Amino acid sequence: MGESTTINLDRELKNRHRAMWALGDYPRIADEMVAPLGPILVRACEIGPGQRVLDVAAGTGNTAIAAARAGADVVASDLTPELLAAGRNRAPAGLKLTWEQADAEDLPYPDDEFDVVTSSIGVMFAPHHQRAADELVRVCKPGGTIGLVAWTPDGFVGQMFSCVRPFVPSPPPGVQPAPLWGNQDHLRELFGDRVTELTVRTEMLNVDTFTGPEHFRSYFASNYGPTIVAYRANAGDPERTAGLDRALIELAERSVNPDGTMDCEYLLYTARKA
Asked: Taking every annotated instance into account, which residue ranges of this chain make up the domain Methyltransferase (predicted)?
């Protein structure tokens, strides 16, 4: 495969990713499900006044807005302009916060530019993990902090991706599953000896968004880009569509707590650039 062909395939892949995250209503999910993760990551990274922060794959800005509220000067970057527009509209006035379209695997920032580089359930969806990790390290100042939140492979969201995987086309060669970012060993391999003072732990996000398994299925079928793509891929096959319905409903049935909530396991990672 020639270099020009590889570049064209990569561009096509990024265009599909950009379009996928613009589907449905991810801002609603950001508000109703995952909003607490941004402030959690900001506290873990000890972000405060005077720091320059880059939030990679920022989406609608749950982490970026929290970092700016803490007094930092923040750049929120994301591949999908529709998510940036939603974040810009929901951000309070007066914060030191800019919104810029950028590819997590090819960030348009100089080396050693930021005191803190963060990503909350964002960079994990970049298709080539090592490229994205290399960029996080490159733009962080020596001694600066890299902080990440990622869904774990065995947690509720990781299991949801496993349920959906049989219903979508196989990814191109070299593309790695997003929940691998929630595996400690995978992160140690990605960052190697370029970081020190690692703090890694798994925690639970308790979600009370859903009234039951069917509500969960319809919510993700309508609002979440990756799930919408799966349904569209099987739109002409009622049997496969019904199979996807069952897979999501059964996952939810297995995961409901006695009080009706669900626990979504995530990995929280912080480290200093060596």
From this structure: 53-144
CA angle at 266 for the pair 260 and 267, rounded to the nearest 5°? 160
How, if at all, do strands 114-120 and 140-151 pair?
A: parallel
Q: How many CB atoms lie within 10 A of CB 245?
A: 15
Q: How many angstroms separate the CA atoms of 268 and 143, rounded?
A: 19
Q: According to the CATH classification, is domain 3-153+169-206+263-273 in 3.40.50.150?
A: yes
Angle at 68 between CA 67 and CA 69, to 5 degrees: 90
- The domain ranges of the chain are 3-153+169-206+263-273
* Residues 201/268, Cβ–Cβ less than 8 Å: yes
Reported as a single tens digit per residue, the pLDDT across 78-109 is 999 999 999 999 999 999 999 999 999 999 99
**Which amino acid, residue 249?**
I
CA distance 18 to 78: 9
CA separation for the pair 182, 186 (Å, rounded): 8
Whose tokens are 């348009």? That residue is: 108
CA atoms within 13 A on the CB side of 195: 26
